Amino acid sequence: MNKDKRLEIFSRLAEAIPEPVTELNYNSTFELLIAVVLSAQATDKGVNKATAILFPVANTPQAIFDLGVVGLKEYIKTIGLYNSKGANIIKLCRKMLDDFNSEVPQTREELESLAGVGRKTANVILNTAFGQPVMAVDTHIFRVSNRTGIAKGKNVLEVEARLDKHVPKQYKLDAHHLLILHGRYTCIARKPRCASCVIEDLCEFKEKVDV
Questions:
Q1: Catalytic site residue 120?
Q2: 201 belongs to the catalytic site
């Protein structure tokens, strides 16, 4: 895929998705961090349902740490992998209290030092909270990037590197959410909605679905 085609793809996506933002609900960078940690292998809708109950009670590192693992699990038990997520979040809060003065760190290395935070989660925070033009590759972005031909790769690191290299500069900040939302609602996993896709004629997917 050439530079001009990628530019046109992102131009059309940006026009079709005028508000490329996360669908997780949050009111602070810390709330976003907790929501993203909870969202691994879970739906945003499910996370929002849990955090709507959790955050009014505890939305700071100290408040969540004070709940303890058992107390926190009561709020997140509807979310997949809640046992490990609950344990990680308590450890995360402890480290934020001890090492970061309760502030969400602003570097990938520091973010990845927090329990439950891997490269993808760190990149989401850097992009969404701190406005850095980094690529957090989730299952949607991995699928869309490979299927369309925008940035092919055998693993998430390859796709991330190729997106970082090939996404037009003016779209880098929003590319993460443009691709996620396109993958979530149009270029879906089992049966992509090619007939209603704004980039159908530019996409290099060979097995397009007409209906």
A1: yes
A2: no
